[in-house]
From TrEMBL:
Residues 22-79 form the RNA-binding S4 domain. Its EC number is 5.4.99.-. It comes from the Bacteria. Gene3D superfamilies: Alpha-L RNA-binding motif, Pseudouridine synthase I, catalytic domain, N-terminal subdomain, RNA-binding S4 domain. The gene is rsuA. Coiled coil: none annotated. This is Pseudouridine synthase. It catalyses: uridine(516) in 16S rRNA = pseudouridine(516) in 16S rRNA.
Length: 250
């Protein structure tokens, strides 16, 4: 892993403002792919050093600033992570592969099993997906009460006119649901190409909103979540860590 990426992961861990005081075997498991059993074997072989001294005691406490090495290579706690991914079609926002592969299969990071997806996109939808290990941060994005805006570029089967702007701003009645959707912001780019910003995350919401007014979504791409914009430098299937400013914007 490039040094700058490792540095960012460690910086993100520092956001927790925790004082490290953890058992050595647990530290190894949280810093490497090793299981607790394999970590104990590595300790028994003398593969682990702390500040240059071989330590075989799994209960040894690792404290802040201590240099821990596995077979001479330094290891560090992975900590809290925040990523953006440009989702391609035929992938799913699930933690496991099902009909299509999970978007997490596109992310090459340590301890991927600790990641979860903050908000979902359908298999045929592309664009911004946020991935994190921070549950509270994720909740700010996904909770309807937080009214975090999600902006989509929408390709439609039929042309729309300016009158639909007011309809969406007032709320749309979705089939099978009580009440109206929350006000949505519609921008018409071309007769069959629009931008739509919503603050909810109902099941297939964008598609159902247009279906409710007699139209059909042919293509859907998420451009932003809150103030976090999809990085134009990311091709479909590519990802990067969020910047400190992006993390703090949620």
């Amino acid at each position: 892993m490039p040094f700058e990426v490792v540095g960012l992961i460690i910086w993100q861990f520092s956001l927790l403002e925790l004082s490290i005081n953890v058992r050595l075997d647990k530290f190894i498991c949280e810093s490497t792919p090793l299981t607790r059993s394999l970590a104990k074997k590595a300790l028994h072989r003398g593969d682990i050093t702390c500040d240059g001294i071989v330590v075989k005691d799994s209960g040894f406490k690792v404290t802040e600033g201590m240099r821990v090495c596995l077979e001479g290579e330094p290891i560090a706690l992975v900590g809290v992570r925040y990523l953006m991914l440009n989702k391609p079609v035929d992938t799913i926002c699930s933690t496991i592969d099902e009909t299509y592969p999970s978007v997490l299969s596109l992310v090459d990071v340590p301890k991927p099993e600790t990641l979860h997806i903050a908000g979902r996109l359908d298999a045929d939808t592309t664009g911004l997906v946020l991935i994190t290990t921070d549950g509270q941060w994720s909740h700010k994005i996904t909770s309807p009460k937080k009214e975090c805006g999600k902006r989509y570029l929408v390709q439609l089967a039929e042309p729309v006119d300016a009158g639909l702007i007011a309809v969406f701003a007032a709320g749309v009645e979705l089939r099978g649901e009580d009440g109206l959707t929350k006000p949505a912001l519609l921008e018409i780019i071309e007769p069959q190409l629009v931008r739509l910003t919503i603050t909810e995350g109902k099941y297939h919401q964008v598609k159902r909103m247009f279906a409710a007014v007699g139209n059909h979504v042919q293509g859907l791409h998420r451009e932003s979540v809150g103030q976090i914009e999809l990085d134009p430098a990311l091709a479909l299937g590519e990802w990067r860590y969020l910047t400190p400013e992006e993390i703090a914007s949620v």
